[in-house]
Write a structure and sequence with these properties.
Radius of gyration: 15 Å
Oligomer: single chain
Largest sheet: 3 strands, antiparallel
Helix content: 10-25%
Distance between the termini: 40 Å
Shape: globular
Strand order of the largest sheet: 3-4-5
Strand content: 15-25%
């Protein structure tokens, strides 16, 4: 049975004018071994690309620093993957994602669930990710970077920063 990837019925979030200038291509992210990084992501490893509002990047960086200092998972545990929705794993098993991510965000004093698909904006010529991303781990520079921060940013932008 062929599984059709989830597509957000609301479509992609509004892009910044700088992003829109290059007419990015929305692509499904490559398969993710695990939804979470296999190494600790440091706040300075968050890369802000072509965006005009850095509040989401800054918020995720603060959560990463909180995790480093207090052994918490404020940002990372906010993202739930596809078919295994609600289950978090740091093992090597392949997550059978249907392209859907549920994001849990505390907003204006209440918890919100945001559902987004796994499509992210890429530069049409050089293939660079055009949203927030993470440096690859120093221990393995060829490893694919963690994508959960990009998915988390997409959820925040699509539902709370639509005026950017």
């Amino acid at each position: 049975m062929i599984q059709i990837p989830y597509e957000d019925p609301d479509g992609p979030p509004k892009l910044s004018p700088e992003q829109a200038k290059v007419s990015p291509v929305w692509r499904h992210v490559p398969p993710i071994r695990t939804i979470h990084a296999r190494h600790e992501i440091l706040p300075q490893e968050i890369l802000q690309h072509v965006v005009t509002d850095c509040s989401v990047c800054a918020s995720i960086s603060v959560c990463l620093e909180h995790a480093r200092r207090f052994n918490s998972n404020l940002a990372r545990d906010a993202v739930f993957c596809g078919v295994k929705r609600g289950l978090r794993t740091d093992s090597d098993e392949m997550l059978q994602s249907d392209g859907r991510y549920d994001i849990k965000i505390l907003f204006n004093g209440g918890w919100r669930r945001i559902v987004v698909d796994d499509q992210l904006p890429y530069h049409p010529v050089n293939g660079m990710l055009m949203c927030m991303s993470v440096l690859p781990p120093r221990s393995d520079p060829t490893a694919a970077p963690a994508l959960w921060p990009s998915i988390l940013e997409k959820g925040a932008r699509s539902h709370f920063i639509s005026s950017v």
